[in-house]
Design goal:
The chain has helices at about 15-35, 40-50, 55, 60-70, 75-80, 85-100, 105-120, 125-135, 140-170, 175, 180-195, 205-225, 235-260, 275-290, 290-305, 310-335, 340-355, 365-390, 400-440, 450-455, 460-495, 495-500. It has three domains: about 1-205, Up-down Bundle (Growth Hormone, Chain: A); about 205-265; about 270-505, MFS general substrate transporter like domains (Growth Hormone, Chain: A). The chain starts with 16 loop residues before the first helix and ends in an 8-residue tail after the last helix. It is an all-alpha fold and about 500 residues long. Helix 12 (about 205-225) runs parallel beside helix 19 (about 400-440).
Length: about 500
């Protein structure tokens, strides 16, 4: 398409604003569902595809990384092809990718299609927000945004609960198939209701900066995902991916420092704003905390307690319910100083993390439900204040570039910390298995005591197998406990930096 094609900024006729609002809310809910829907079926996918814990985590991390990489391209795509066209192709590709995920014959193709799902879905939310503001006059922006926000909130509640039922009743493939009807309805809504204008703002993309940063992010993520399996830097593969990530990052920094600020992917002027730099650090930590419990809890619950997918889905939905309460509270608290709200939000997540670190192999549904809801409440209380702190002192002209980097770091933080926590679970689990196994032997006097051995006997094959299974269960539980301690530590580590932020007085 040429730069002077007719389509540009989508807008709806006066008579169909409500339908446009419903369509955009539906599109946003579609994307929000996909972020969380696969988590509930991770253990079932792991068994069906013969994958290990670190391998099945790639289903989540590659989706997030693809979203992080493509999100900064949204402005360029909209300027080049028009918002309406990008929305149509985004919803189409997203829906088709969801179907392909459902029929994936092996782990490799599932990871590939999950990455495609993240790439096609990345522009949907920012473009929906832009189209919403174009459709409604300024005096109605508050009302429209409030209704639109329900899509972001309801997606993480509906997806795991409904996905858990379908996964248990049918199979894990149906957590992807269930997205298809939502995608079809969204596609018809966008095609029939979203209109285009003639003017299209001219945008350029710094391809050198973008590609070098994308390669650095992807290579670093691959290194973290594959590190534990390949024994880290004793592996040629890990050394190669680490070197590629370092080289690409060097190219990005050198290119940014020697390129005109107006044409650079990262405008160096952004880094002169202290609040913005602090906001990037805080949102990176926030991204680390956001989805990690949702990835860790399903395999934990099914490994140590054999929970069905239905119950796991409801427990993950509790997090979405907590987020709903947090977002509703911010309607009344958003005018307050954002720094205390950030402290409260991160504290709630930290308390939830320490409570999860207190889980044992007899963990109950109530314990998981209230800690998940508390973590979700913290997420709901953090999002608005972190946005106010990051962009409160930034020049409006720099907002598009600033927002792109903001969301890239948020998503990258999520994928990085998920990989780190999975590595902690696997590594410390193996260490504890080795340590516990040395105590369980015929030469241990304690094993001979009836109140210690219980119904197990090391003289029979069944007893040895039962003892081995219990050692494995206890060891993996210790691995998850260590990961939750790391989660809680990250929550409280960020707090001193919050006080360095400046708050613009009313």
């Amino acid at each position: 398409m040429s730069g002077t094609a007719q389509t540009d900024v989508s807008t709806a006729p006066e008579s169909s604003r409500t339908l446009v609002l419903v369509t955009l809310t539906f599109v946003t809910m579609l994307y929000a569902m996909t972020v969380t829907i696969a988590n509930v079926s991770l253990p079932q996918m792991q068994g069906a595809l013969s994958a290990t814990t670190d391998q099945i985590a790639l289903v989540v991390t590659f989706n997030i990384v693809a979203t992080a990489i493509v999100t900064p391209m949204t402005g360029w795509l909209a300027g080049r092809f028009g918002r309406r066209n990008v929305m149509i192709w985004g919803v189409t590709g997203f829906t088709v990718s969801s179907f392909l995920c459902g029929i994936a014959p092996n782990l490799e193709t599932l990871i590939l299609f999950r990455a495609a799902q993240g790439a096609f879905g990345a522009p949907l939310v920012p473009l929906s927000q832009a189209l919403l503001l174009d459709t409604y006059p300024k005096e109605q922006h508050g009302m429209a945004t409030s209704v639109y926000g329900t899509g972001v909130i309801l997606g993480p509640i509906i997806a795991p609960t409904l996905g858990g039922y379908l996964s248990e009743a049918l199979s894990w493939r149906w957590v992807f198939f269930m997205i298809i009807p939502f995608g079809v309805v969204s596609w018809f809504g966008v095609v029939s209701l979203i209109r285009a204008r003639g003017h299209r703002p001219k945008t350029n993309l710094d391809w050198t900066g973008f590609l070098s940063l994308a390669i650095a992010v992807a290579a670093a993520q691959l290194m973290l995902d594959r590190g534990e399996r390949n024994d880290w830097f004793t592996s040629t593969e890990i050394l190669a991916t680490a070197g590629l990530a370092g080289l690409a990052l060097y190219v990005f920094i050198a290119h940014t420092a020697t390129t005109d600020a107006k044409s650079s992917f990262l405008n160096p002027v952004l880094l002169k704003d202290r609040n913005y730099v602090l906001g990037l650090f805080i949102v990176f930590i926030f991204g680390m905390l956001n989805f990690t419990p949702m990835v860790l809890l399903p395999p934990l619950l099914q490994t140590v307690q054999d929970y069905p997918d239905t119950i796991v889905g409801w427990l993950l939905g509790a997090r979405g319910f907590g987020s709903l309460i947090g977002f509703m509270a911010m309607i009344y608290l958003s005018r307050l100083d954002p720094r205390p709200l950030l402290i409260i939000g991160f504290s709630l997540q930290g308390i939830a993390g320490f409570a999860m670190a207190g889980f044992d192999v007899n963990v109950t549904t109530f314990e998981v439900a209230w800690t998940s809801a508390l973590q979700g409440l913290g997420v709901g209380l953090i999002w608005v204040p972190i946005t106010l702190v990051t962009f409160g002192t930034l020049d409006n002209k720099l907002l598009p570039e600033g927002m792109a980097l903001f969301h890239l770091l948020r998503n990258f933080g999520s994928s990085v910390f998920i990989s780190i926590c999975v590595a902690v679970v696997i590594r410390t689990g193996k260490i504890n298995y080795a340590e516990i196994s040395t105590v369980i032997s015929d030469f241990s006097e304690r094993i001979g005591l009836p109140f210690v051995a219980g119904g197990w006997s090391l003289e029979e094959l069944e007893g040895i197998a039962a003892v081995g299974a219990e050692i494995g269960r206890q060891s993996v539980m210790v691995g998850y406990v260590n990961a939750f301690y790391l989660f809680a530590l990250a929550c409280f580590t960020v707090m001193p930096f919050i006080f360095l932020a400046r708050v613009r007085k009313a």
